[in-house]
């Protein structure tokens, strides 16, 4: 099993848990849990593989990610009531999933020989789009767009670090581990210390 496959599996597990937690907040049935968990787990990777013309899409060629996500969904369905603050769990699970999925997407694009811009974009897409789909379907405020927090910029920072380190001569493994670390540290810093980018403040639109 390759390092990139392990990254995909890991991101599937953690994103599936965050998706199932959101499903519990929406009070869905067990099939709804499985659907939201799978959508969250494979959404970003699916968009990545389609854009890169990677055939077959990773979970079509290997259905294990779907089985893993469904298993996580069933587990959360029977245990979510034991968790006091499910929103907090969603936010932190999502931060770990982001830190795994960004290097997974970055690594796939690197392995296929794409240039720096595409590598960075694929890292961002893999890390953010599954969570975006989850939040839109469950009528939650998307974490990707939540005002005053770093999210997509964390994916950008992590993927950029990987590209720069690879250009400087680092091994792919070192570049991807550094990508994960940068992604998670910036996301965690936003949650704990309130790090954020400047927000546009213009005049309100006229009615």
TrEMBL record:
Assigned keywords, A-Z: Cell membrane, Membrane, Transmembrane, Transmembrane helix
Chief localization: membrane
Sequence ranges assigned to domain Glycine transporter in this UniProt record: 6-80, 92-165
Membrane topology: Multi-pass membrane protein
Domain of life: Bacteria
UniProt-annotated location(s): Cell membrane
Record InterPro entries: Gly_transporter (IPR005115)
Signal sequence bounds: none
Membrane spanning residue stretches: 30-51, 63-83, 90-110, 116-137, 149-169, 175-197
Cellular component GO terms, alphabetical: plasma membrane
Family the UniProt entry places it in: Belongs to the UPF0126 family.
Name of the protein described by the UniProt record: Glycine transporter domain-containing protein
Organism: Tritonibacter horizontis
